[in-house]
Amino acid sequence: MTENINTNIFDKYNLAPLDRKGKIFVDGIEERMSYSLEFIKSQYPNFEKLNLTIEFIEYHHSDAVNADFEDLVRVGYFPSTEAEMELDHSIKHALIGSYKAAFADLRRAIELTLTSIYLTSEHTDKQEAVNWVTSQANTPFVSDMLKKLARSGRYKNINDNYKWSDNLKQFYWNISDFAHNKGELKSYRHLNETNFFMSGTSAPRVNLQTLYIFCDAFIACVEEIVVMLSLYNPVILVGLPMFEKFGTNPPMSGFYEEHQAEIVNQIIPIKYKVFFENLKQTDEEIKGIVDWVASHPDLTKEQIEEQLKRDK
Questions:
Q1: Nearest CA to 265 among 273, 253, 257?
Q2: For the chain, what is the radius of gyration of the CA atoms?
Q3: Which of 245, 242, 278, 246 lies closest to 259, judged by CA?
Q4: 76: which of 92, 112, 197, 253 is 20 to 30 A away, CA to CA?
Q5: How far is Cα 14 from Cα 20, in angstroms, rounded to an integer?
Q6: How far apart are CA 261 and CA 239, in angstroms?
Q7: Which residues are within 8 A (CB) of 65 and not within 5 positions of it... i.e. 6 or more apart?
Q8: What is the dihedral sign for C-alpha 82, 171, 259, 40?
Q9: Are 298 and 244 in contact (CB under 8 A)?
Q10: 114-131 per-position pLDDT tens digit
């Protein structure tokens, strides 16, 4: 299950230690990436779901941010865009065999999403949020944030009925084990099946077993993020005719078209499907927004064409 790496690589470079580390790391990087991509596309059994989660993060994730003035004053779009970067880097690291970095990126993506939701909730004030964004305050502990969120509203409902907080913490702890180096099974030696360490460095290796585990973890990470976003801004579960009503000038974010909502509903884990189907039917916030959008008349063809001309 492991790619063969030329162990004579150390003989190629008679360089200073810093230069040698860089040269050895990038040696064969294209081959490692191609080898990983081939496995994911041809052998990883959940490739379609992986693609769906990547599509969500790349094209729709930031649109889920509620463009409420108070929320934007507190944290803005920083946590959302930073989480996207973490998930982007997690894939890149995994493709070249940097697995511990890849899992650490997933961990931070979860933290960023949860922190953003927590700091825009009733459990904190604006100053606490601003202090965090400006790097003057530490990131709250995951357990503390979940404990407080689970006391009220939709978070309490899903937690009381589906143990949402425990499920999320368990996933977070599982991927944290790689960062915390929880024994040999979470080590570089095992994850990459590295069997030599010479002159203070080692050559990267692709381990398909680890890559398989990472792909599963990436999907699970995005699932957890989608669940959090759907609790925070549940109207993303429902597709709205935003283009018909607003054309090219819709509200900043927080609303999804039908195809975007379909992706959200596909990503939500099976264990929470019933909860969110019921939420779509009963949540007053969803109903209020759906009614507000429906109250706007459809734009005429001429109005849309005029918008397009102005946008050029």
A1: 273
A2: 23
A3: 242
A4: 92
A5: 8
A6: 5
A7: 71, 77, 80, 233, 253, 254
A8: positive
A9: yes
A10: 999 999 999 999 999 999
Site of tokens 């080898």: 35
How far is C-alpha 245 from the geometric centre of its chain's CA atoms?
30
Closest CA to 261 of 297, 298, 293: 293
Q: By C-alpha distance, which of 260, 186, 268 is closest to 228?
A: 268
Task: Report the pLDDT value the prediction gives residue 23, as an integer from 0 to 100.
Answer: 87
The alpha carbon of residue 203 and the mean position of all alpha carbons in its chain are separated, in whole angstroms, by 29
Q: Is residue 198 helix, strand or coil? A: strand
Alpha-carbon gap, residue 144 to 6, rounded angstroms: 47
Contact in structure between 45 and 224 (CB atoms under 8 Å)? no
Token pair of 189 as six digits: 């030696």
Alpha carbon distance 23, 213 (integer Å):
28
pLDDT tens per residue, range 8-58 = 555 555 788 888 888 889 989 999 999 999 999 999 999 999 999 999 999
Q: Which of 129, 154, 113 is closest to 70 using CA atoms?
A: 129
Name the CA dihedral angle for 22, 24, 26, 29, rounded to a multiple of 10 degrees.
-160
Q: What is residue 8's DSSP assignment?
A: G
